[in-house]
Amino acid sequence: MTSVLTAITPHLTVSPRIQERLQRGILTRSQVDDFEMFLHQVDRDFLQHPIITQNAYTQWFQHGDATDEELRHFIQQFSVFSNQFLVAALLKVINSPTLQQSRASREILLNELGVIYRRLEGVIAAQSSQTDEEKDQQGDPEVVSTEGTVDGGICRFRAAHFEWLIAVAEGLGLHYEDLGQRKHGTATTLHFCDELQRLYGSDEPNIAEGASFAVENWAAAGFWQELEDGLNHIKQTRHPQLKLAFFTWHNRVEAQHAGHTLEELETVYFNPTFDRTQFIQGGHAILDAITVFWNGLECDRINHIYV
Fold this sequence. Notes:
The protein folds into 2 domains: 17-48; 67-121 and 131-303, Heme oxygenase-like (Heme Oxygenase, Chain A, Up-down Bundle), CATH 1.20.910.10. Helix content is 63%, strand content 0%. It has 13 helices and no strands. The chain has helices spanning 16-23, 29-47, 50-53, 56-61, 68-94, 99-113, 132-138, 161-170, 187-200, 205-219, 223-237, 245-269, 276-303.
């Protein structure tokens, strides 16, 4: 019998993978029911968090009314978070408790650095008929794939996510030297970066697992769509030169990352060393840090404060 959390939450479900383990006798009904209730708690505590369900800044941004000054400030602060995330991602690789989890973490880090996901059915096929505009919106097939693995993938400098963000910034008069370093960040942005390193990159596996699950599900919950909508409006009305591949690609790929974290949770949850309290603690703390970041941008916008 399929057990799904539809009556409790529309978000997290007991997957077919867990059902198969139940049917094969690897898990007991009591274990599956216990896991189902834990998913209920995670959904309530993580996925219903206000910064996921009601982000004032991204909801405002979605309308495309940001001035050029507001837009440059947003891109600069986002570049700091994006570039400093590499430190947290490396710590997550270093502190991974198992080889399997290390590989999963390396998938994310290496893709950030420019290793293209290799589709499992074969090599990346070039689509030379695409226009530059189509490549910006849909992804240049030479540097972009949303599916597969970095194992055996090709590394290209221009496939690094930070280089895509530079391309966005240059359309607004910002350049490499204006982006990504700690000196460019506000106090609220740097707080988020530091908490990512402390929690997402924690050497306590349960803290790191909770933070990772919360981060990836936050990223898959819709804020990328709000950013893309706002930037598309700005591109259409004021800045036709804007390159938006950084935002359009992340909007398409983050659901895959969230799916991976659920698979990872299914693996670690049934281990004797899994600690629910620490998992929830890590997720809560990183969501609080995410809130500081976005609320900082909202406060800067309201008070016209820019770096």
